[in-house]
Amino acid sequence: MEKIQLFKDKKIRTSWNAEEEKWYFSVVDVVGVLTDSLNPTDYLKKMRKRDPELSSFLGTNCPQVTMVSESGKKRKVLAADAKGILRIIQSITSSQVESFKLWLTWVSDDAKVRESVSNKLYIVDYQSNDLRKSNIESKIYTLRGSQIMLDSDLAELYDVETKALKQQVKRNRSRFPEDIMFELTKEEFDSLRPQNVTSNKRGGNQYLPFAFTETGVAMLSSVLTSEKAIIIKLAKKEIVLIDPYVDARTFDILEDREQNVTATIFTSRVTSALRNIKKLHDVQYPKRHIGLKQCATNFHDRFLIVDDDVYHFGASFKDLGQRLFAFEKMELDKNLIMSQLY
Question: Among the CATH numbers 3.30.479.30, 3.30.870.10, 3.10.20.30, 3.90.1150.10, which is that of 234-338?
Answer without folding.
Answer: 3.30.870.10
